[in-house]
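[job 4471] stage=fold_predict status=RUNNING
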Amino acid sequence: MKKRIVSILTASVLAAALLAGCGGSSGSSAPAPAAEGGEEAADEAIDYGTGEITIWVAEEVTDFTKQQCDAFFEANPDYAGYTVNIEPVGEGDAAGNMITDVEGGADIYGFAQDQLARLVSAGALSPVMGDNAAWVAEQNDEGSVGAASMADTIYAYPLTSDNGYFLYYDKSVVSDPSTLEGILADCEAAGKSFYMEINSGWYQTAFFFATGCKLEYESDDQGNFTAANVTYASEEGVKALKAMINLHKSHAFVNGSSLGQASNPGAIVDGTWDASSAKEVFGDNYACAKLPTFNVDGTDYQMSGFGGFKLLGIKPQTDAGKLAVCNALAKYLSSEEVQLARYEAKGWGPSNKAAQAADAVKSDEALSALAEQLQYTIPQGQYPGDYWTDATSLGDSVISGEYDNADDAALMEVVAAFQAKCEGYVK
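[job 4471] inference complete, writing structure tokens
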């Protein structure tokens, strides 16, 4: 394993990391080359200094991360002046802790992609610069790179592409999972149910984003929403709402997203967390696929939705040497080799494209289906709490049949009212 680690961190990469440290630090610069000494001085190892690097990761991967860090430092004696302190702080808590006290926070920390804007606004993330940024963009899938970026700047190293939803189905029931209309027809013919939770603001975006609607917010480091870009009050919004209504009208439709609570399912929109249940329920007929297309007014739309990613960020450092070491370590912890090892040890789905192509990952049908679906999603950002409540109300109205006989003009009023609420969250 040592030989493999060394191959990842060549001298040129280390030099790039040091340059990245210069670009991302506050008022500091990389150590200047010696003014005297010629080639002999140039051949000397760079002095990265000494210190402690604190890392926050989810409790379930603390031991795994410790093992990987030990291997990294063993293979890179130039960094021998640093020790690592790994603390169990989950992705859900890390961002809040960092924003509260950037200086006292971890040097490297895992976080969920929906916290990126807040962390950037709070000055809690050092941009990934130069060759490291190019490496991130080249190595990882498009969705995770987008999740790690703001305004064309990459701020974190992607770790996973494994949070989102796709289709589980019984292949003895569903003959072709590519269209929603075909799935519903097959389920109806077999007396089976199709499950999707359309009164959830998370799942509901599968329709609205598919037709091209936008639902985007900007926020400050306090979590206050400062701007909104919502385009539900449009022909695209009406088409998405009509697709939800059409789904509700099917005799096979049941509102829900948990296989553990499903009765007689033929197919369900769900996530990787339910893979074991899906295998148990569908048995030998277990199958997975990306979400299907749906047709409204003669046009097909690919179902979309939210994607979720785990990212690894670095706190801005005043010492360029330490920042260079942090970048090299974060790069290694997010590399193909370590992502694949993390999948094998903990089941985390890789964002690295080569790791996704590994036999072990490709044979994981749920992760393969999710990886395909994530190409059509957007990373979930921060959303106001009231959005989720109002999205539930919209879905409940669809399910109750309130809009079954509404024409396009009436549906436009519905999506316009919903958009007004979404825009009203910004104060």
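[job 4471] summary: Residues 244 and 398 are 7 Å apart (CA to CA).
[job 4471] exit 0
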